[in-house]
Write a structure and sequence with these properties.
It is built from 8 helices and no strands. Helix 1 packs across helix 3, helix 6 packs antiparallel against helix 7 and helix 6 runs parallel beside helix 8.
Length: 261
């Protein structure tokens, strides 16, 4: 039976407490409003002599009310972040499922065509007379360029979608804050993984599997400082930005080709 890690648990509790009070401090207006609304009437009654004394419990109750109001707003912020990430996960899951279905359908059609072509080849009759060779006319150069422009634009749109998803995730991490992100760290950020895998699927769609594997590799990424106070937060933030830089390089390369046409 493993020994309990009391030191690690204590560190996590400290991070949780810091993250909680940091969230409360962002909603000081709610705390102050409830505190003033609860204590000011009692103070006015005391000031006009309508009561013989002013109990300290009035201020304690007002402070607790303000703390509850600020805590509710912190909870609401977290719920909105979770709802937004759930919606992103749902959209990504639908997109990936649609892509897999389309890919499977393409493979099925290709296999059917290859089967039909094989059967036709088996039934080809020997040719007696040799017909003169027919030279296919080359398509106009303009049509070839237009097709290439359309293909490049399609790739730029796909990469732009991947870039937007990575940027949104990086901004969500920033909004959560280093304290809160570290406090909620469970060994892996599943939303981060989904966003990077979505970007990888777009790179594979544009440049093939080999390039998508080079894109996914983080072996050359810059890591946070070893003495970083928030290593998981810093690593996630830095890796997302470096993935964005790779997407930007792909898009710049395609844009140059598009301008040259």
């Amino acid at each position: 039976m493993p020994e309990p890690d009391y030191h690690g648990d204590e560190i996590i509790w400290r991070k949780d407490i810091r993250a909680f009070f940091r969230g409360i401090s962002r909603h000081w207006v709610a705390f102050t409003g409830i505190f003033v609304a609860g204590s000011l009437p009692a103070y006015i009654i005391y000031l006009f002599g309508l009561t013989s004394g002013l109990s300290s419990w009035v201020f304690v109750v007002a402070a607790v009310g303000g703390l509850l109001a600020a805590s509710f707003q912190v909870f609401r912020d977290q719920r909105r972040i979770i709802d937004r990430k759930d919606e992103q996960m749902r959209q990504l899951s639908e997109n990936l499922a649609s892509q897999k279905e389309s890919h499977a359908r393409d493979i099925s059609i290709r296999d059917q065509l290859q089967t039909i072509a094989g059967k036709d080849k088996e039934h080809v009759q020997p040719i007696i007379a040799v017909s003169p060779p027919i030279h296919a006319s080359k398509p106009p150069v303009a049509d070839g360029k237009e097709a290439r422009r359309s293909e490049i634009q399609k790739k730029l749109n796909a990469l732009g979608d991947a870039m937007e998803r990575l940027r949104e995730q990086r901004e969500d991490v920033m909004r959560a804050g280093a304290d809160q992100y570290e406090a909620s760290w469970t060994g892996q950020d599943h939303i981060y993984q989904v966003m990077v895998e979505f970007a990888q699927s777009k790179v594979e769609e544009c440049f093939g599997k080999a390039e998508s594997e080079r894109f996914r590799s983080d072996s050359t990424f810059q890591d946070p400082s070893p003495d970083s106070k928030y290593p998981n937060y810093d690593r996630t933030f830095m890796y997302l930005r470096q993935y964005e830089a790779r997407i930007e390089a792909y898009m710049e390369r395609l844009s140059k080709e598009l301008r040259a046409l």
